[in-house]
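ESCALATION

Customer reports they have been waiting on this structure for their group meeting. Please prioritize. Original submission:
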Amino acid sequence: MANGELIAVGAGFCLCYSVFLIVILAVGILSRLDPLLYGLSYDQHGLAIDKNTLYTGGRHVLGMGLEFIKFPRTQRLLAFSNKISKELTAK
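Update from on-call: job pushed to the front of the queue and completed.
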């Protein structure tokens, strides 16, 4: 092989390896929440929860070592009437 061919092969290897690393890192920092969930960011290394940011459904960039603590996104309504009744009802 000539010197120019070795440089071309080395450059091709470096390019492929760089693309591979970028894809691996991109997959590692992206997190996904289903549409019917809320999420809090949890740091696995520092064992801390970010209480200031509430995430809704979709894709989010959290970072390496971070994951979501997921909660259902439901709403419950309790309605009480003024009627006197033997039992307490809730809707």
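Sent to customer with the following note: The longest strand covers residues 37-43.
Escalation resolved.
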